[in-house]
Amino acid sequence: MSWKNSLPFFIWQTFRFSRNIPEFRQNWRNYPRWSKSFQPGRNSVNDESAWITFDGLDFLNRYLQAEHRVFEYGGGGSTLFFCKRVASVVTVEHHEAWFRTVEKILADKGYPHWQGFFCGAAPFSDERPRNISNPADFASNAPEYAHMSFEQYARTIDAFDDESFDLILVDGRARPSCAMQAIPKLKTGGLLIFDNSERPYYLPALREIFARQFTVELDTYAPVPYSPDFSTTLILKKR
């Protein structure tokens, strides 16, 4: 076992990131699940589980209903997680090799209610600087995509009618841009899931919009399966 998935490391992470006593206690209760997630052969795809915080997973297990429609930016274990629980799942993925892998897994499992789109990045049309926090720039912070636009990727959801989805997961590239495109496609009362929201470049341009149009359902700094690092899965409910 690596020190990064050991009990002392977990204790340090719990003290470091828990923002209050209830959050500390909740994070500590997740230690057994976190520890077991590092067992050989376990990952989000094999476990058919979304790769978000344990708190987020517990929330979704309580929330999801068989008739729900889901859209996700970024596919993988979350695709399998949703396909087992809801009526329809739409995925857009930017990495072609990974998309083909997910596509094959879904075909082998025989899920007929999944619709997948591969949509890679394209070069920007000009050389002006882009701001990864600006939803209008459709930019990613990944070095390999420094000069690439994710506009078509983010706009894949535009093909669907407004208020089409009960839940939209933003867990791929250019997340501020994807969140902005997602808002009109989410039903009133539906959930917007924004993963890793603690990263400082994700939310500056979105905070006012989120405050005006959503209520916060979950915002804890919490352990994540298969990962030594704690993170935040922000869950918002559309007013």
Give the SSE map.
Layout lengths: L6 H11 L3 H9 L1 H6 L17 H10 L5 E5 L3 H7 L4 E6 L2 H14 L4 E5 L3 E2 L24 E2 L1 H4 L10 E6 L4 H8 L3 E10 L11 H7 E5 L2 E2 L8 E8 L1
Parallel strand pairs: 1-2, 1-6, 2-3, 6-7
Antiparallel strand pairs: 4-5, 7-10, 8-10, 9-10
Task: Kindly list the characteristics that best describe this protein.
two-stranded antiparallel sheet, alpha/beta, 239 residues, Rossmann fold
Structure description:
The chain is of the alpha/beta class and 239 residues long. It has a single domain, classed as Vaccinia Virus protein VP39 (Rossmann fold, 3-Layer(aba) Sandwich), CATH 3.40.50.150. 32% of the residues lie in helices and 21% in strands. The chain contains 9 helices and 10 strands. It has helices spanning 7-17, 21-29, 31-36, 54-63, 77-83, 96-109, 151-154, 175-182, 207-213; strands spanning 69-73, 88-93, 114-118, 122-123, 148-149, 165-170, 186-195, 214-218, 221-222, 231-238. The protein is globular and about 50 Å long.
Offer a quick outline of the entry:
The chain is α/β, with parallel strands linked by helices and 239 residues long. The protein has helices at residues 7-17, 21-29, 31-36, 54-63, 77-83, 96-109, 151-154, 175-182, 207-213, and strands at residues 69-73, 88-93, 114-118, 122-123, 148-149, 165-170, 186-195, 214-218, 221-222, 231-238.
